[in-house]
Amino acid sequence: MNEQQLYDFGDGLPVNTTLKVQLRERLTAPRKHVRWWTLALTAGAVTAMLVFLNIEVTSKTPALEARDLDLVGQTTIQQVANGPVAYVGETERGPVFLVPATGIELYKTDGKTVVLASAKQLMAGSSSAETVQNACLSLDGKTVAYELDQNIYTLDTASGERRLVLASSTDMTVSWNYPAFVGSGMLVATRVTSSVENGKLTIDNFGGVVLVDLRSGAQTVLAEQGGLPSATRDGKTIVFTQLGDAQPVAQLTLEGRVTRHYGQQGDYSAVISPDGRYIVFMTKDQELAVTDAGSFSTRRILLGKGTFYNLRWSRDSKGIYLLKFASIEGWSATYLEKLELGKTDVANAQDAVRKYLEALILHQDDIMRTVWKQVPFEGPLSGPGAQPVGYTIGTVRQANGKTLVSAQETYAYAMNPWEIIQDTVFTVVQQQDGRYLIETVSDGPRLFMTLTGRDNRITVAKPDINGDSSHGDAKTYQTLFDLNGSFNEELKKETGLEVTGWGASQKTGDDAARQVGATPLDPNGFHLTALGYDPDAGWVVFALQRANGDYRLYAVRIRQDVSVEPMARLIGKGSGAFVQSLVLNNEGRVLVNLDMALQNGVVLHQGMVCDVGQREYAPSTALADFMTKGGWHVMTAFWRGDTLAVAVTRSTGETAIDSHVVDVNPVTGVLAQTP
After folding, report:
1. Are 387 and 411 in contact (CB under 8 A)?
2. Of 11, 358, 479, 565, whose CB count within 10 A is highest?
3. Dmax over Cα atoms in the chain, in whole Å?
4. What does the pLDDT look like over 306-330, one tens digit per residue?
5. Which residues pair with 634 in a beta bridge?
6. C-alpha to C-alpha distance for 241 and 264, rounded to whole angstroms
7. What is the 3-state secondary structure (H, E, C) of 323-354?
8. According to the lineage, what is the superkingdom (predicted)?
9. Residues 583 and 464 in one domain
């Protein structure tokens, strides 16, 4: 059972009333406690535990100063995997992950994957629907400990030998979870005890921290109540979490069995770094925070409110892995992210804007938040609606001690003829700790236009003299190209089909008004589904799409002389794919983002480049070759000015586990750098 399942499970649990009375009697110690049974078992709370050891000692870990945590605040976030992939540990050969479908996998630094323990090995003899949870790796990288069916097992990755270390009782009144290695020969885990009342299983104690000697099997109870234990690399200090106390983080020194209490009421899921210097934890407001392990005196928020769980430190204590659950308008997903502390990839104001825009393109909200001085609103910064598909950094100037960075951004709706091009001005301020953070965003003075395709016409809407770019004002529209008449006649002559509609009506919610008139793709005709516009060169590109995956790409040069009818030229066609977006750069090249539906139900993303100046189809074959080399798959592609950026990932099983954004020469397909 993972943390998220525990959160959901906790709301319906009955409480042992007899235990409540006993606890009330015990809660008369001088230290001020809060009656824990009055607290709702909200997300994360069920995993935190009470501890009643009240011994105060002096920590041997040197306290960190505030400037140390200022350095921690310079954080780079990497989205490591899509799906419920969990970080297990690390070896000299690379990081190790738990992939539910395949098992424990080592992801080597050369990009190759090695299965250290298969899912079949890990689950041998289990007939339940439970999967392996909460796996961790020993310091020498040879042994994996994990939870299965509320038992704790270890498995030797070399021999495949599996041992049952902590067994739940047959009546489930005792169960186990959250193992963690302590030094080289010990293991600590959470014990959950229950009782049966009137035929119902009732949780008596949400935790108990138990130390196990892996050689002898001897067990030592470190705390009657507590949970989610973690240990330092030397095995001398264990941290676990309690709830209901004014200081809910317990730090226990094994030598002498002494415990200190830290934190603020509501803190939970505390995990100590291997070197013993930091503790990462969740606040009562579901924020991810870090503090110094020596005194817990300075707290720094790393991520704003969210659903984060399975917190793990990297081997070098410089990074934090976590699972993030995200949900937007009925859509949900789980991501594995890594926060690299003390590292920043922002060297100036332009870098801050680039990082923000690329994270916006890739829907990486947590990364976007790291470059904001103060996030303008709660909730996701990206979501349904127009998707950024390209950007160009423009002028940079100084004003009143602040840096103003202008950028031109292109937005498009997937498979719908609607493109927005706008200028934006970002106000960036350098902080005292050296970070560059975005303070405000405002519309630029030069450009804002919308390209729309409806009723077989491609039109552009520009702001009126008051800056209003409302699409409902017919006076702002200019027809760029009409697909009726001669174009439709030529199309029917060549293909036997006509343009019968526009868009791919698949969206709801905020997009519903925009799609009035859009219909599902037609098997007996083409729909106008994607547009691209270069207002400087006057090129318009558009896609015609059929329901069976046939598509045709056209380019039109819009002439200044309106008496000359523009002619559309075919620049590409294909089958078995759906054109998601078309984006032009300033050099007359169009980026085509395609989704290809394979027979097994998998959707393969592909990007290719066409030159609108060529009468014949001229895709960059070198770019296509890059996609198939080394096991890389394309998530999406976009323009960084005139440079092609490709977000790529490698897959293990059904899960993407290694993601990068690389620069690709749009003509030759050669990578500017190797991921």
Report:
1. yes
2. 358
3. 93
4. 888 899 999 999 899 999 887 765 6
5. 648
6. 12
7. EEEEEECCEEEEEEEEEECCCCCCCCHHHHHH
8. Bacteria
9. yes
List, as one string, the DSSP characters of 229-288. Answer: EEE-TTS-EEEEE-SSBSS-EEEEETTTTEEEEES-TT-EEEEE-TTSSEEEEE-TTS-E
CATH number at residue 162: 2.120.10.30
Q: What is the pTM of this model?
A: 0.71
246-251's contacts with Cβ under 8 Å and 24+ in sequence apart are 246/31, 246/32, 246/33, 246/34, 248/48, 249/279, 249/281, 249/296, 250/51, 250/53, 250/223, 250/226, 251/59, 251/279, 251/293
Tens of pLDDT, residue by residue over 362-413, are 888 878 888 888 877 766 677 667 788 899 999 999 999 899 999 999 998 8
Nearest to 303 by CA among 276, 327, 322, 330: 322
Instruction: Give residues with Cβ within 8 angstroms of 276, minimum separation 6.
Output: 61, 232, 233, 234, 236, 237, 293
Residue 224 within any structural domain of the chain: yes
**Domain end position, chosen among 313, 343, 373:** 343
d(CA 331, CA 333): 7
Same domain, 400 and 252: no
Query: Would you give the distance in Å from CA 641 to the centre of its chain?
Result: 25
Q: Which residues of 623-636 are buried (b: 16+ CB within 10 A; e: fewer)?
A: beebbeeeebbbbb
**What is the distance between the alpha carbons of residues 423 and 246, in angstroms, rounded to a whole number?**
50
Looking up tokens 């960059």 gives 620
- DSSP type of residue 625: H
Under DSSP, the state recorded for 15 is: B
Distance CA 305, CA 287 (A): 5
Say how many C-beta atoms besides its own lie within 10 A of residue 486's C-beta. Answer: 12
Is the domain of 327 the same as that of 437?
no
User: Tens digits of per-residue pLDDT, 148-207?
Assistant: 999 999 999 999 999 999 999 887 778 899 999 999 899 999 998 877 776 665 655 567
Supply angle C-alpha 137, 654, 646, rounded to 5.
100
Cβ-based neighbour number of residue 602 at 10 Å: 11
Q: By the 8 A CB rule, do 607 and 591 touch?
A: yes
Q: How many CB atoms lie within 10 A of CB 282?
A: 29
Instruction: Note whether 268 and 417 are same-domain residues.
Output: no
Dump pLDDT digits (tens) for 253-291: 988 788 888 888 889 999 999 999 999 999 999 989 999
Q: Find out whether 434 and 415 touch, Cβ atoms under 8 Å.
A: no
